[in-house]
Amino acid sequence: MISVETFQTIQQASSAMTGNTAYLGGGTLLMRTLNYGEQDFEKIIRSTDNNLKTINDAGDRVIIGAGVTMAQVIAESSLAFLAPVARSVGGPAIRNMATVGGNLFAQHPYGDFTVALLAFDGIVKMDNGSEHDLEQFLSSRDNISGIVSSVSISKPNGQDFKYKKVSRVKPKGISVMSIAAWLPVSAGRPSNVRIAFGAMGTTPLRSKSAEKALEGVSIDASGILPALQALAQDFSPPDDAIASGWYRAQVAPVHLRRLLLGEVEA
Amino acid sequence: MSTIEFRKDIFADERDDNLNTIGKPEIRQDILGHVTGRSPYFDDHKFEGLLHLRCVRSIHHHAKIRSINTSAAEKMPGVVRVILPKDVPHNINTLLSLIGFGRDDEALLQDKKVAYLGEAIVAIVAETELQARNACKAVQVDYEVLPHVLDVEEAIKPSAPIVNDQYPNNTFDYHDLYDHQKLRFGDVEKAFSQADHIVEGEYQMSPIEQAPTETCGAIAAPEQNDRYVCYTSTQALFFSLGTTAKLLDMPSSKLHFVGGTVGGGFGGKVDSLHEPLAVLGAHLTGKPVKYTYDRAEEMQVGAPRGAERWRIKDGVMNDGRIIARQFTGFFDSGAYTRLSSYAIVKGTGHLPGPYTIPNVSSNVYCVYTNRTPATAMRGFGITGVDFSIECHMDKVAEAVGMNPIELRLLNAYRDGDMKAHRRIAKNCALIECVQVAAQKAAWLISPQYNAMSSLKDGGGERAQIPPTMIDDVGKIGERKSREIPTEPSSNGSMSTKPPSTIEFKGVSTAMNTVTPDELARPDLAPPTNTSEIAVPRPVPAAQPQAPQRSTTPYQQPVVTPPSQIAPASAPVVPPSAPVPNEPYKPAGDFQRGTKRPGNSPFVSGTRRR
Amino acid sequence: MSKTPIQFTLNGKPTSVFVNGGANLLEVLRRDVGDMTLKYGCGQGTCGTCTVLIDGEPHLGCLTLAETVEGRQIETVNGMADGPELHPLQKLFMENFAAQCGFCTPGMLMAASSLLNRNPNPSREEVVEAISGNICRCTGYEPIIDAILQAASSLRGRAF
Lengths: 266, 609, 160
Description:
The structure holds three protein chains of three kinds. Chain A is α+β, with helices and mostly antiparallel strands. Chain A contains eleven helices and 14 strands. Chain A folds into three domains: 3-47; 50-154, Uridine Diphospho-n-acetylenolpyruvylglucosamine Reductase, domain 3 (2-Layer Sandwich); 161-261, CO dehydrogenase flavoprotein, C-terminal domain (Enolase-like, domain 1). Chain A has helices at 10-15, 30-35, 70-75, 83-87, 92-97, 100-103, 112-119, 134-139, 208-214, 221-234, 245-261; strands at 3-7, 21-23, 43-47, 55-58, 61-65, 123-126, 131-133, 148-154, 161-167, 175-182, 185-186, 189-190, 194-198, 205-206. In chain A, strand 9 and strand 10 (175-182) form a beta hairpin. The radius of gyration of chain A is 19 Å and the shape is globular. Chain A starts with a strand and ends in a 5-residue tail after the last helix. Chain B is α+β, with helices and mostly antiparallel strands. Chain B has a domain at 45-146 and 211-303: Aldehyde oxidase/xanthine dehydrogenase, a/b hammerhead (Aldehyde Oxidoreductase, domain 3, Alpha-Beta Complex), CATH 3.90.1170. Helix content of chain B is 19%, strand content 17%. In chain B, the strands form four sheets. A seven-stranded mixed sheet of chain B has the order 3-5-1-12-9-10-11, with helices on both faces. A five-stranded mixed sheet of chain B has the order 7-15-14-13-8. Chain B has a three-stranded antiparallel sheet with strand order 4-2-6. By secondary structure, chain C is α+β, with helices and mostly antiparallel strands. In chain C, a hairpin with a 2-residue loop joins strand 3 and strand 4 (57-60). Chains in contact: A-B, A-C, B-C. The B-C interface holds B 1-2, 27-28, 30-37, 39-41, 43-44, 46, 50, 128, 130, 210-215, 261-266, 294-295, 608-609 and C 20, 22, 30-31, 34, 36-44, 46-47, 49, 76-78, 80-81, 86, 89-91, 93-97, 99-106, 109, 124, 135-138, 142, 146.
């Protein structure tokens, strides 16, 4: 039936990933498929490689091991800007289990942590040292071989990063959508803007049209209006039990506006 | 410990306050088990060699089954037994056959035609749950997909696909007469013609899943003395036992059912079908067998509160008296009857709501659609129509420019009033509940309305059964041959027959009071010499004196809420309100968690937040 | 089917079992060890009824591969009471009507226990956050929150 093999390093684990295998990260995704008999693997591969749990400051980027949990992110002072994102994932128990690497593979409408990584120009590093731009990784994640070793991201300065997760159930629930907005300021205006959305497509996605429309504008109701209108070009969100695609498309500009302008919700 | 506020001042003389337990907060007798984890839910029993049962389920809303091939599944690792529909000794039932109501229409395992997504076709018993799942995936079912219908009004059209072969009109057959349940009281059409306003509304809800934290399930095992023990999550142990005995053609003396700890039911575990399959599995394998829903099945296959659609039409006088109310209701029973047939009768007995309205008519349909079969949930049969009624009352208040709370108090039933299904109202308390709620919510009502009481102004002429317009429109099958409106017909005849009782075959006497045409129980108030009844006109007779109404609409004045009131005191009489001069509107957009100044009037004694 | 031996500490006692490949901690604790306090509510990590503490931190048994708990400390509700003496959380849940059907209660107690071990003086918001992974369909949560706040206060009183 199902068998389990454990390796010390992810390189060893990776070379064992032949045939019907799956790699166990935090278990929050893999075990769920197994509990429902929806698994397409016969062997679970895991590793006890401690490198996966490290967080390294590398100048203007930070490297987060794929095995770092949401709870670890929250506890790490150098990742304070990501704490609100990690805190929006699941409940306290899930956050002790869910990993940065696993979140890269979460299916719609999950994967909110990855939305923030996408906004920070994430780069995925595999066990064999190869690197992939996160956006490209996401579009081909079903076919990538190897095991994710770490994700590196740019580090923001101060107040230029905003994040919100929209859900129907309070205080915590599955995403109607999540939004990560990084607006680095240069000469008093946003430049090199990144706007990433979760649950608006089959993977977390950037809105390149909105990003372009925010370059150099003043962040007020009229300044951001073209960006809000541009969102529709980049997304055709799916229908699911949480919300219809139509609904998501209608409210995405509303939520982006509220996020950028700091509007308090009723 | 407790944040309960007791209003013992109300109906104080009806009650001795010298009881030791009743009327006092008590710690639940089972909560010690809950906090120690010792409360024994059905799954908290260890069985050596426990096997797991899972079902192959329909992937279509509606389809004929051409063939079922289990040969591959039988050979899979861990599979102990494949249970086919023909293995079920008496493979057809309806829950209420226990009380002789309705026809058997639902198979435990279906091999002819599946009528809802998730309907069980074949059961597989294996050593582990995963093996059972894998084996289910290997069963091949050849379906011939049929057109399906998912809306109640679409389903009663003559062109709709037949969902349930026992009820080819897609409606339950009521009393062998009509395709709906009728209620008639007085002359609604005449009252409409005399009313100052007609207020109409349509209300509906989707199915609502009870979603208990514990999913439905049962474990059955052979016990000593050739019995089967069955631990089950059911809310209705005797229903489950009787249903199992019938489906398995087994004397109930062979069944030892243990229930009592339900991890949340809310009505969703009253007609569970887990015990019959679990016991059958134990019988066929000689081993303990567990059958439970996983969370996905609980949501999709587990019976929800059925969807409902209601149309309400009121005839209202300028002073706020509702003199006529007409209902057209549709219950979505899903593919099979289960409890919906009874829900409609129960709901009909509740109409027109807790109000005395002298002319009432209602047609309620139990409709079959290709949705998940529905069952009970919290207030079963009543909750949906009550939601509709209360939304409608607000509409009526708007139409006549009246304080919506005062409207309810005006029309509320009082002790001694005749209800539309011909029982005298007693122990009414709507007025007192509304008055206390209004005070708590700082909603001003005038002193005259604060002085109203359930004990006053009822009975007398209001206790009479009026001459009633009856019709026989909508006989079973009639809708297939000619177009008939679904609402109560305006073509009827005034019944002058003396009231009589029709025997309700096979149904418990508690249900005899709701009968098809205009009928009354002989044991109720009206005299037997019917030719000399002084029958009041269908337009309302004596009503509590309504205050003079101006023609200008109502607006709730803005005042600061009363300070927190000690429980024993009488309701505070608020100062008189300024004269309104604008149309009634709510004070603001609806918001959750509105913050009011001062102490919350909902707190009494202990601070909750 | 070959089984893997695992050893761990359960409520302070060394425990060992043989588990099937792919078995989750929920089924292992319930079926193989006989601890019925944690429950199956969803198998998806959304309801929290299978919450256990692993090395003092809340985890979900249904999503934990049993083999990963080798050598670790696991706590369930069975470890809360001190012999016949209930833990203040258990007592105050009883007094505050913080359970009706009781199915979510073990998970709530584990979440609360972990919170109070880490934060003896939580705010109401922190209590809400601590139980945000546990679903209750009966109580409306308020009695549970009250019970946890009162237990925190009672435990602080004891510390002297």
